[in-house]
Design a protein that fits this description.
single chain; 55 residues; mainly alpha
């Protein structure tokens, strides 16, 4: 099934994603990666601060 037909609503709910949905998914995955990296950085920074404080 071609993308234009999917974008026009030619599939069921379980069918392929529309172009808009694909773009949103791509954006959400990118945002998720960024948030995970930020979380990991903050965990390391907190561990460093706690280690420095204990010395």
């Amino acid at each position: 099934m071609n993308q234009a037909k999917v974008d026009e609503g030619g599939t069921s709910d379980a069918g392929p994603l529309t172009t808009e949905e694909r773009e949103e998914l791509k954006q959400l995955r990118r945002q998720n990666r960024e948030l995970q990296m930020e979380r990991d950085f903050l965990k390391k920074a907190a561990a460093f601060v706690c280690h420095e404080r204990d010395q």
